[in-house]
Design brief:
Number of strands of chain B: 11
Radius of gyration of chain B: 19 Å
Number of helices of chain A: 17
Radius of gyration of chain A: 26 Å
Largest interface: A-B, 37 and 36 residues
Order of helices and strands of chain A: HHHHHHHHHHHHHHHHH
Distance between the termini of chain B: 48 Å
Number of helices of chain B: 2
Order of helices and strands of chain B: HEEEEEEEEHEEE
Number of strands of chain A: 0
Largest sheet of chain A: none
Helix content of chain A: over 70%
Oligomer: heterodimer
Strand content of chain A: under 5%
Structural class of chain B: alpha+beta
Largest sheet of chain B: 7 strands, antiparallel
Helix content of chain B: 10-25%
Structural class of chain A: mainly alpha
Distance between the termini of chain A: 29 Å
Shape of chain A: globular
């Protein structure tokens, strides 16, 4: 297994505050502390913090400026002739971009420069609308979002900007929904592939977790829209479960391979969240048993499954101990949900009960995985999330199936007591672990 | 990336945006500058387009199949060509609806190319954008003079149409 350093700001800040004490108490030598300083780039922390703050401020300023410009454009001025109007808009676009680039590259004000170029991309979108208005261009407005995407994406790639990439991703998704709704089901199949080819490498190059996670969400959401177009719940289930499994696998690949390790947490969290949501929704019996209009599973769901299996094979070979068990568990959950969907699509079983049992089982296994994960990754939040998910499942079943009020109240009480007991046991476990750690240290 | 390459990439992206902005209205601009003027009778109705402000949906006389007399069966998405003729009042009236673009028409006739969409005849000139400052004036004018509205459009030799102005009696909006 390839190990890589934990470069999170939280850890590095804690390390920086602890280091002087460690040196003073002789836990580490001056030389080792210096090596740690260099390895974790602790001297950059202050600058990174101010960079983050300035980027947030500039982004907000940029959004406000962009909003003002769009409103100005939308309130189209009647007195000015069309050619002059167009010239002004073109000049404003080129001006904003040029000033932004000049501030960035000649003055070294990267954040401000990028914010102005971002504004330029907002203005570009507004200009498309205004040009369409001036020339009385007809047609569906998703076409305008398509054009906006192309221009913004070109700029995002040119300056490796994740914020402009996010804008292009957002407009592209609006285009996709409109294009797909406008009877282009076959042509829109290419959209998830286009996202993978154009936005994933951009997020990679820009080193942006946000753009990477947003792209992953859009890919899975688009595949789910495509899967669910047959008005089939089972196809949608397959799209969501295979998407969740793929996200988990991708996140674990980042973690274990060390490649862009900073993408790992967000991607695995998205994968687990999607699997949990899917298992919960389809744990209700009413979603099962409808007649399917098509017997062929969705193309993208099958691609996701194939990629997940390929990735899992690699993961299971590389992972060991807890990690291996965790991956087997999530793979089991994803496979259970996906196989249930495929069986429902191919109408192997018209009965609801086996599917309801399978999805509830998958949900319970998933909760167990999250709780187990909380123990060996020492993340208390995961423990509570897993426990609350179990409680949600149990209470949902009690509310779903007819039961007397007395029985329901007993279920609520039992769940409450169980959560408190589990919490107490968890805290005791954490204390024992901490005590063992201290003894080993002594 | 070197400084020169970064500048080239940035300039390329700006050019892409300018090309898109030029390409979006190109066809309509060519039709407007090369086409011949026709005036069509309309009856407006209409909702709201978020990206381009308010507009009215114009129900053109040539959008009604029954205005052409006998019409062949068109399937959804199929191209159609409306032959129109200039009337004595200056308004162009529907004559026939064809599958193929007719040629050799007399001077007082023209062709508008369209498409059948969801059973409706569409020519790409059905929406008229209302300018912000004239919004309430036009809305009131349309409400009180519903059957006296007409549009001026340009039609090029291929039958492509571009909307130019909306006219209600002697008032002109563009």
């Amino acid at each position: 297994m390839t190990e890589s350093y934990n470069n999170s700001r939280k850890f590095r800040t804690a390390l920086q505050s602890e280091l002087p004490l460690w040196i003073e108490q002789g836990l580490v030598s001056e030389e080792a502390a210096s090596r740690l300083q260099t390895t974790y780039q602790l001297s950059n922390l202050k600058e990174e913090s101010s960079r983050l703050l300035s980027s947030v401020i500039f982004a907000i300023g940029g959004l406000l400026l962009g909003g003002g410009l769009i409103s100005f454009v939308a309130a189209n001025w009647e007195e000015i002739s069309d050619p002059v109007k167009l010239t002004l808009l073109f000049a404003a676009l080129v001006g904003l971009h040029s000033v932004g680039y000049w501030l960035w590259h000649s003055r070294g004000w990267q954040r401000l420069g990028e914010a102005l170029i971002f504004c330029g991309c907002l203005l570009f979108g507004a200009n498309i609308g205004l040009v369409a208005q001036i020339y009385q261009i007809q047609g569906d407005s998703y076409g305008a979002f398509g054009a906006w995407t192309l221009g913004s994406l070109a700029m995002a790639w040119a300056i490796r900007s994740w914020t402009i990439g996010l804008l292009a991703l957002f407009t592209s998704f609006i285009w996709f929904v409109g294009f797909h709704e406008d009877s282009h089901e076959r042509a829109s199949l290419i959209y998830p592939m286009a996202l993978t080819a154009l936005f994933v490498p951009l997020a990679w190059k820009a080193g942006s977790r946000i753009l990477y996670a947003a792209t992953a969400i859009c890919i899975v959401a688009a595949a789910s829209v495509l899967a669910g177009e047959a008005r089939s719940e089972a196809q949608l289930l397959l799209g969501m479960s295979s998407g969740g499994l793929l996200l988990w696998t991708a996140g674990e690949l980042h973690r274990l391979s060390g490649m862009r390790r900073e993408f790992a947490n967000a991607t695995t969290a998205l994968g687990l969240g999607l699997l949990a949501l899917t298992a919960y929704i389809w744990s209700f019996r009413d979603l099962w048993g409808s007649s399917e209009t098509t017997r062929v599973p969705s193309l993208w769901a099958l691609v996701f499954l194939a990629l997940s299996v390929a990735g899992s094979v690699w993961l299971l070979r590389k992972a060991s101990g807890h990690e291996r068990g965790l991956n087997i568990g999530v793979l089991t959950v994803g496979a259970t949900l996906s196989i249930s969907a495929i069986l429902a699509i191919s109408a192997v079983g018209a009965r609801k009960l086996p599917f309801v049992i399978m999805t509830n089982l998958a949900a319970i296994i998933l909760a167990g995985i999250v709780i187990r994960m909380s123990l060996f990754r020492e993340q208390r939040a995961l423990f509570w999330l897993g426990s609350l998910y179990v409680v949600l499942l149990i209470l949902s079943r009690f509310l779903e199936y007819e039961a007397s009020l007395l029985l329901r109240s007993l279920a609520f009480l039992a769940c409450g007591v169980a959560v408190i007991l589990a919490g107490v046991r968890y805290e005791q476990y954490r204390r024992r672990q901490a005590a063992n750690g201290r003894e080993a240290g002594a | 990336m070197t400084k020169r390459m970064a500048l080239a990439a940035f300039a390329g992206a700006v050019i892409v945006q300018l090309v898109i902005l030029t390409a979006v209205p190109a066809r309509k601009a060519i039709t407007r500058s090369t086409g011949r003027t026709v005036v069509l009778k309309v009856q407006p109705v209409g909702p709201y387009n978020s990206l381009s402000g308010y507009y009215v949906m114009l129900s053109l006389e040539i959008s009604r199949r029954d205005a052409f007399g006998s019409v062949p069966d068109f399937s959804d998405g199929e191209e159609c060509f409306a032959v129109i003729e200039r009337g004595e009042d200056g308004i162009w009236k529907p004559v026939s609806l064809e599958r193929a673009r007719p040629s050799g028409l007399p001077e007082n006739r023209a062709v508008v190319a369209g498409r059948v969409e969801h059973g409706q005849l569409r020519y790409g000139i059905e929406n008229f954008y209302i300018p912000e400052a004239q919004r309430s004036a036009i809305a009131e004018d349309l409400r009180t003079n519903r059957d006296r509205a007409k549009v001026e459009a340009k039609v090029d030799s291929a039958g492509n149409a571009a909307l130019v102005k909306l006219m209600i009696e002697d008032r002109v909006y563009q």
